[in-house]
Amino acid sequence: MLLVSIFKELRLLSRDLHGVAVLFIMPILFMLIMSAALSKGNELSRSGEIVLLAEKNNTLNQSFAKALAEENLNIRQGDLTDLALFQNGLQQGKFELLVINRNSAETLLEQDQGLELHLNPSVDLIWLSGIKGILQKHYTQQRLNDYFADNTIHLENNHLKQVKKIEQQVNQELEQKFTQIRSYLNNNMWQERYLNRQGDSVNKPNSVQHSVPAWLIFGMFFIMIPLSNVMAMERQTNTITRLRLAQASAWKLVVAKLIPYFLINQLQFLGMIALGYFVLPLLDMPMFRLSGDFTAYAVLASAVSLAALGYGLLISVIARTTEQAVVLGGGGIIIMAATGGIMVPVYIMPEIMQQIAQFSPMGWALTGFQNLLLNHYHLQQISPILWRLAAFAAATLATAVLIYRNQLKKQVRF
Fold it and tell me: What are the residue boundaries of the ABC-2 type transporter transmembrane domain, all occurrences included (predicted)?
């Protein structure tokens, strides 16, 4: 009996070879994609240009730049009077980071001003963390070298050989110097200023500005599951035949299907925003809030929804069963999410994976949301992304309608 049952299960599996194949293919693909996405090594020296700004003939800044250049960083020195010019270059993406040093070798430690970092909100945070470590190491070393350059302690009345008094005076001066050093090391070294593409100061980016849009897009694309269930039920109950006999055109039937799911996508959009705004602060996480004109977000959400519906409808008309739709559609969504920066931020990926991410509709959508959130783009500035999503939606919807029309004709002949 056991052998008979085993052979029966094997025969059933043989009728679903695509499902069995996915059990092997999907983990392999996912393993390869995620391994490649997380394979980025230490590439600090290969990143964009860093500009050190200070007053002319600042010996401290010159020594600082020389030490950073020895780390194979792309360093350029500039005059502080040209700050506006370099800020404009930063906004255009010519420079990765501006480091402003308002101190000199003669500046007392207790009067030292922290380094000002001017950077774009969409900067690679891992790269920035590594750069800040290098900056701190060499700048602190240069400041302390200058401080100890003339570190001779002069004692008064030492010709009287009063050992006790000399000992006390030496200890007092040493303690004073070490107190100044401790105070300097405990000071905040950074004054970060994030400038968007319009040149306006914006808040420091946080994790929720990636996670909320990322998983919102991921959820919107999974509208495919209820859509494919409805399409499968039409075939199983012969509803598709009755619709064709009623002389309903394929495109009208598709539009009638898509409108309710489009509205569901918009409810997802509003629900995720509300969740990020009201719930995340209760969990001791940063609040998620939209910056800029809400119209741009609404248009982008609509474009993402149309792309998701086009993909979902195409899978639904291709798949013969609900199980096939879930396997094919769900697998495609996971691959698009992995390559598009949903699961792993694009800036963590190596260059080859960053190029692949440019072909993922989910990657386009995420870039659009982050440009609105971080760089405060206007609707016109994200128009290239909107056109990509619209083209993807049009292509998938048109293909799905053609396939659906042929299916209707076949059902009538039957």
Answer: 23-401
